[in-house]
Design goal:
By secondary structure, the protein is an alpha+beta fold. It has four helices and twelve strands.
Amino acid sequence: MPHLILMLEISSLMHDRTRRNGLAMALTSALAASGCAGAEHPTYQEAKAHRQAYAFTLELNNAPGPPPDATAHASHTIDLECLPIVNNLEGIQHTPKTAIVDPEVSQRSDCHYEGRFYLDAMAEIDYYGRGPCGWRLQFIDIRISAGGEEDTSFSTSISASEVASEGTLTRYFSRDIYPRDRDRSPQISSVDSGYPEDKRVDLPPPQRDHLFKSSLEVRKLTVLGSAALQTDLVDPT
């Protein structure tokens, strides 16, 4: 009898393990189907010609140290209506929704930088079999730094609505953290977004007097023809 009881217990354990393995395999298959297993997505492409072009200039005033390097990053969001229908267990859209374009920045002098970007930078093509996907600009971010890995990146960002109204965006940055903030903890980001004018005036005088200024100007370019390559753009100024 003890042997029979033992065999029954082993049989029960084996049945439980088989059932658990079956559930695990079913769950794995469901997760794979849901996109949790790293589903592949098409590569978003940049447009070859543009109709909505803008120029930007970045001017520094009272900047400390040697002339910094400058980079630009434009974030674009895809039209969510053209993305695949969500049919996974979590009900979450895993398809990439944004694309980053890095406009070229030219340094014209120690304190003057220029570049251009496009509202229609991304190709509006059929990525998911649901028709051509539209895109819209979220923001463009211009950053300057001394170039070192630990150096502070001084960021001046402008939103799509601010781009549409053109004009100049001004930020003030502390000279004390150029080229780097020596007191910064490794857990704290090295990106500094500075102070707008209304925040600068609230600073105590010693701190307010130890800033340098970044002025980002954006202006629309005139496109020759119905669509243009980079060489077919005219600066109205």
